[in-house]
Design brief:
The protein is built from eleven helices and 13 strands. By secondary structure, the protein is of the alpha+beta class. Helix 3 runs parallel beside helix 7.
């Protein structure tokens, strides 16, 4: 299988967390209001089976109303939407008319390829699972420092020996790290300073002082997720990019990829993935399939089950517009629920800055992938994505 993979060095304006802000792209002018006519997604040979929404109990007229509202400018940040049900792609539309500053960082000119930001973290977790499945890493209880060749660490504390792979997957390393306050738009944000000051991101994050026992508290840490990619590269028989292409991207039929890399050339598994929205939906479907794709095993069912188990006590209030409640964090996946007529509907979610979402709903066998360009640090793009899910996609279910 031929891959188009381009790399770009990550620079200090990078914003890869789930919040924050920065200078937004040039305004994108919405399409003139017009009647949208639903079409079955194109069959592109990318390993998706395509089908009509109506064949999977989804109202075509509701989807058309959704797109008419998007095209009229009601949801100005939304760039693309893909929906799958019962394992088949039933909706795939790109709305945006031009690329933006984020595309420019990797030289992307394809409107259907989009920055995924921290939704990338969930993909890195899948690669960790495959690495364990293949025996290259012993398991989540492996001492994390043992996965690196460094001979010593700054701010040494014996408790660093207690950090396990699981602690990194669940953002509970105990290190002195806070990338949510101040926001990413501030030059004082710890992640932004980290990008400016460091070269070997894995060494730098492990050099940080400990402020809590490993496993004691949650602290969202993009730099730690980047180090997971280095752990894979150190342990697997191939480079991270080749291992990912052979073990995950190839089986899922994902061929057009753009990647931001760190100064050492490591792909940024914390937020540097660019891919089509319909390809992002594949990761949600892989999770719903408990690790299989088109009948072939890609990652073990045990890994999916472990990844979607809440590992933290984290929960926080979201804006009322979201109608999505965070309940916990698994292995680099957000876990939460929607409320449908008084019924709790559980979700597995990959979530990225600017309105990047993959929302997998197991009870409905439904995946929604949304990409947006809400790079101004507000909640607008996030609100729009959840409004689309609640007002249209879930309401479109007819059976």
């Amino acid at each position: 299988m031929q891959y188009k993979i381009r790399f770009a060095i990550l620079v200090t304006v990078a914003l890869h967390g789930c919040g924050g802000g920065g200078a937004g792209p040039a305004p994108i002018v919405p399409l003139p209001p017009a009647d949208f006519a639903y079409q079955v997604p194109a069959s592109t040979g990318d390993s998706w089976t395509v089908a009509s929404a109506a064949d999977h109990g989804i109202s075509v007229s509701t989807l058309e109303s959704m797109m008419n509202d998007v095209r009229s400018g009601m949801f100005p940040n939304v760039d693309s939407i893909a929906i799958a049900r019962n394992g088949e792609l039933i909706f795939d539309e790109t709305i945006r008319l031009e690329t933006d500053s984020e595309d420019g960082r990797v030289g992307n000119t394809d409107l259907s390829v989009h920055a995924q930001f921290s939704a990338t973290k969930s993909i890195t977790s899948l690669l960790i699972g495959i690495t364990i499945d293949e025996g290259h890493i012993a398991g989540v209880n492996a001492p994390y420092l043992g996965l690196f060749p460094y001979v010593g660490y700054a701010n040494w504390d014996e408790r660093k020996n207690d950090i396990t792979l699981q602690h990194v997957l669940t953002m509970q390393l105990g290190l002195d790290w806070n990338e949510w306050n101040p926001p990413y738009s501030s030059p004082d944000n710890q992640l932004i300073r980290f990008y400016e000051d460091e070269v070997d991101y894995s060494k730098a994050v492990l050099d940080l002082p400990l402020v809590a026992d490993p496993g004691a508290q949650f602290a969202y840490n993009t730099a730690a997720t980047i180090s997971l990619g280095q752990a894979i590269e150190n342990s697997a028989p191939l480079s991270l990019i080749d291992f990912g292409a052979n073990a995950l991207m190839g089986p899922l039929g994902i061929t057009d990829i753009e990647l931001l890399t760190t100064p050492t050339g490591l792909p940024n598994g914390g937020g540097g993935f660019y891919v089509r929205t319909r390809d992002m939906a594949k990761f949600g479907q892989l999770v719903l399939n408990r690790g299989t794709w088109n009948g072939d095993r890609v990652v073990s069912e045990a890994w999916i089950n472990e990844s979607m188990t809440p590992r933290t006590d984290i929960s926080f209030s979201n804006p009322d517009e979201w109608d999505w409640q965070v309940e916990g964090y698994g292995y680099q996946w957000w876990l939460g629920h929607y409320d449908m007529a008084g019924t709790k509907v559980d979700t597995y979610v990959a979530w990225g800055f600017g309105g990047q979402w993959v929302i997998a709903i197991p009870s409905l066998n439904l995946v929604i992938a949304i990409n947006s360009h809400g790079y101004d640090g507000s909640d607008a793009a996030q609100n729009e994505a959840h409004a689309i899910v609640r007002r249209y996609v879930l309401d479109a279910l007819t059976g």
